[in-house]
Amino acid sequence: MSSSDVSRALAQPVRYRVLARYLASIGLVVAVLRLPPILLSWACGDWHFMAGQVLVSAGLLLICLPVTRIWVPEGIRDNEVMVITSLSFALTALLEALPFVGGGLAGIDALFETVSGVTTTGLSTLTGLQHYSAALLFSRAWMQWYGGLGVVAFSIALLFLDRGMAARRLAMGDITDSRDILGNARGHALKLLYIYATLTAISIAALWLAGLGPLSAVTHALSGISTGGFSIYDNSLAAIDNPWLQVLVSAIGLLGAVALPLYYHVFKRGIRELAADSEALALPVVSLCVVGVLFLCINADVGNVWSSLKQAMVMGISAQTTTGFANADIAPMNAGAKLTLITSMVIGGSMGSTAGGIKILRFLIVLRLIQLFIVRTALPAHAVLERRLCGSKLEADEIERVLMLIMIFMGTVLLSWFAFLVMGYDPLDALLEVVSACSTTGLSSGITRTALEPALKAVLIIDMLLGRVEFLAMLVFLYPRTWIKIGSKT
To answer: Which N-terminal stretch is annotated as signal sequence (predicted)?
Structure first.
């Protein structure tokens, strides 16, 4: 029997009972999370938006409560975790779109907005934000906040599928059983929630004390710590006159781009834990490099050092952390500035954070592999060179997974970019837009707007979902053997 025959015979499709049970549990959480927007809608008198929120929550409760009583066997398979991850983001965005349609948005724009919110991307087709109610504006930021928490929880659960370097770094306490994915995820969930809520509260207080109004402070803190980037202003941070406030909002994105478990380790073991984390040290270094290069590019056009520095600091940090806040129009920027932003968004933030991109750790692994290749050329043929990064051994399957994810990321970007080129958009602007969606950043060259062709809006929606579940989970979802047993005869 060939290896393909063996894999076919051993392949185990997902169990629909298991999917239904755990998706129903997530649905109940989403229903409860609707309470703050409902209360604010009631306080603001936005009855249409409130009605949509109440109907969605009531529908979820009616459907999900009976389903959560379904008995399921203990344990969960790898493919089931990935399918649940993919479906949870897609279904949540779909349900969230219903109140936005009631709030006056067209169907495709409502779905675009909620996918962008739940995936913490920040691209938006909305204009005239000052005309929307405070409840709707808060709901956009709130979606990004709980979407960011879900991103971290699911990403750590997915890392438990194989106990590689990333899983060892992000574990908050002992991983009792490498196959007990749900048990490990539950053990981390409360710690993650505590860390995330604490960072959010500190961010809200800092922005409020710095002079932002209550709604502006809350929404920008929620969008910042989730690296989402939704603003309540059409021109994002450019509407805030104080440049230091703009930098402060961007700095909140840095807090969200650091792996949340690292805060736990620093609290437990002290600041030396921060010094031992290569990814955490690389984030500010890479950010400063991006800010420096961006400053040189912008200043070449602007010619004003202070103005160029303000733009470079906000835009550079925003791109590197994949937050998406902006204090300048990207469209008139020169090619060097746009390429700098694109490269920064591709790299992204830390693993185990709310940031997108391929992640700094994977970028460091690729750099390490290149270094080892160069070193090996000077060694004898029989020499053994162990692959390590900052003292941690890099396993072959971990390297394979990193390279595969990067390849899929680039392939998705190229295919999506081609769709925009066919429609006649400027190549560099289109590339920035696609990379922004795939890396869940939200910076825009002006292409994303209400008048954008529906087909291209659909492309960006798919890119945002793929980028958020890091591609592999969605590929498992689309794999036929995930759903049915094919060729089971031996």
So the answer is: none
